[in-house]
Here is the input.
Amino acid sequence: MIDIEAFKRMSYGLYIVSSGNQDEGNGYISNSVFQVTAKPAQIAACCNKDNYTSKIIEKTGSYSISILHNEAETSVIDKFGYQSGADVDKLQGMKVEYGGTGVPIVLNSVIAWIECKVVKTVDVGTHIMFIGEVLQTEVIDDSKPSMTYKEFKEKKNRVAPANAPTHIEEPSDSDETSGKSSSGKYQCTQCGFIYDDSEEDTPFEDLPDDWTCPVCGAKKSDFKPI
Amino acid sequence: MIDIEAFKRMSYGLYIVSSGNQDEGNGYISNSVFQVTAKPAQIAACCNKDNYTSKIIEKTGSYSISILHNEAETSVIDKFGYQSGADVDKLQGMKVEYGGTGVPIVLNSVIAWIECKVVKTVDVGTHIMFIGEVLQTEVIDDSKPSMTYKEFKEKKNRVAPANAPTHIEEPSDSDETSGKSSSGKYQCTQCGFIYDDSEEDTPFEDLPDDWTCPVCGAKKSDFKPI
Here is the structure.
């Protein structure tokens, strides 16, 4: 038997993985980033094949890892975690530097970054693992600790996006989904965003059927009362 | 420039990766374990080619991941992290179950475990990455959180073993290494163990030259005053 609760006991960090150049760039939030060797220093980043950034990494052969701190802005996480670069220019308005390969490096809410050149790609099914040799790194803020994936879920009321290796599909329960919340709170099953009647002008039940989640664009019916 | 401090900002968990069967089994401490896909659930474990366990995984094609809790016993970490299965039967005296593939699963200081069948091996230089499809998992203790790699280093005064992907080689400084510590404390550069004169019968300086680190077997000259 596979109890998915076991996967939730694993620990990760939280990163923005970016790729591209000055003309076209994109990034996404990932917890699946890790060092695979020390000599030479190599980092693996596991990216869903459907991710817009995945295609850019394949094209350019380089990516950057921005390590988020534990007070990272929710707006940064929501932009990079729950929107697609196919719809939005995520780098617009962000603080961005460009590495030696020309790759964009996001600096908002970031304490350190790593620039990598892809040396191997591994097809693991729904995802591609990009093994990258580290070209350069920089620590830009020594005052804050890194954000862990656990903190991200707790502090930000967010869940792993549908494209993440660690995404867990919550069982759909039509009775519950259409039910009324006694707490006045409704949670998006796609991103974890909580709609709280007490903080909004319109109670959740009165929202039109074509209303969508302000964070990830999921349908009203994707919310469940909590 | 590669500032290795950037790597220290990345977050990981702490696991025992085991392989083998009832006749021959071994395990090692790893932080390089992560989920790479959700459908099907697949886990990657990155293992040094010199690791005794690495050879057993290659032979048997399966491994288990034991997720350590945040109060994991130092003796468990030291046994699996700083000794080699070539010298010691690490599973002797441990609480061990065997999975469907026959793989040993260590249960000491563990809150959950995952059994995997290798579906792909990736050569990444000094290390091999074993991509495993998850066969079964179990949460065995819901009362404690997982231990993070950061907590392991802080609580246990340990550093990543020389075989770990995240091992950082401290610059050797012969003046410092042979110097006297004003605090009476000397740290092993290989495993992080601290020899504290105030807690020992023999001051560090009076130990014989062939004395070795009780945790990892490093030489006396591998210690530095702190």
About this structure: Chain A has five helices and twelve strands. Chain A touches chain B through 54 residues (CB under 8 Å). The longest strand of chain A covers residues 110-123. Residues 172-177 of chain A have pLDDT under 50 and may be disordered.
